[in-house]
């Protein structure tokens, strides 16, 4: 199965999402700054043109029915001194009839008239160059012969654009330097911030199935600590699972060695027998050994299943106990044991139905196996406060005080009766632990044994 393609590293994603918006904002800032600079440059040019057209209009003074032009050469040189930023002007009277300035000055594209003699600003193209123009139209003459005069002053927009570029350069260059320094700091911060993850990766790489010790993160951000804690929980679960698997394999190998050796020995002796009766006896021993081995394997598998993590759900333990008692009744009758049930109609506990059934099966199986014929076994359910009790009690020979303390040990047997393997009650104790409960053994007077499974009640 092919591995999914790896995406961008976390470092690249962080740098991308941190630096890309910065670049976009820098470009937007540059465009905005250029537009603002153009606007300020246009206002500056408009103000200069307005002052120039008013000053020029004051140099042309009405004299009777004519005009007196008081425009000294020095003033003209001031207007035309910068060849790269020349100021073009024209005075015409009547409007459009050249009087002074540049005779090729285009006429305004619209009628200029302002009752308050305020200059009008507009754009035009002169000799293929964009220009900004301020124009004003003034009246002069007496009441009998009124006349009008038009004054136009133009300035190239190249100066405006140059001014805007210089302003943008002066503003954006420091911002670019600051952006470069900020990018370096962001890169260093991301690298330093991701250092605990690299440390975590190296520690995980050093872990093997033989060494699953917890990860130590003494100095790391809270998020990395949370990740390390989650990984430590996973390592703990994995370590417990491997330990359980190893213990299961060791137990299976140890416990199966003897019955398998006995089976091999009996089959070898059976192959040497010539008498049918002796051969039948050998085969009966082989059959008994095979049954014991099968029982041992089933118990080992049950033990391994109980050691796994379980999901608990509310179940009616009393109904389950009655059902298990009914299932074991035929075998109890065959064994000469009086099996009965006493207890609640409903008793809700958080549990796993399959595992609780396994625990009750083991308790009843042990009681029927070791209590003997003509005895009574009682499956009982009742509650004590917030605790639910599942108990199996018999009036058989019971156990001594020393044996009661070892009854839940693995592979420990108080009796040498054939058929058992010393795992039934160990499975019961493991199931109780998985259900956040306990298993206990008590002596019954005058004789007998009671195994009690204590579980919390469903809230």
TrEMBL record:
PROSITE patterns: HAMP, HIS_KIN
Coiled-coil residue spans: none
Superkingdom, natural source: Bacteria
GO cellular component labels: plasma membrane
InterPro entries (UniProt xref): 2CSK_N, HAMP_dom, HATPase_C_sf, HATPase_dom, His_kinase_dom, HisK_dim/P_dom, HisK_dim/P_sf, Sig_transdc_His_kin-like_C
Keyword hit for Transmembrane helix: yes
Positions of the Histidine kinase domain: 251-459
Reactions listed under catalytic activity: ATP + protein L-histidine = ADP + protein N-phospho-L-histidine
Domain HAMP intervals: 191-243
CDD domains membership: HATPase, HisKA
Keyword Kinase: yes
Keywords: Kinase, Membrane, Phosphoprotein, Transferase, Transmembrane, Transmembrane helix, Two-component regulatory system
MF term (GO), any: phosphorelay sensor kinase activity
Protein name: histidine kinase
Native species: Rhodoferax aquaticus
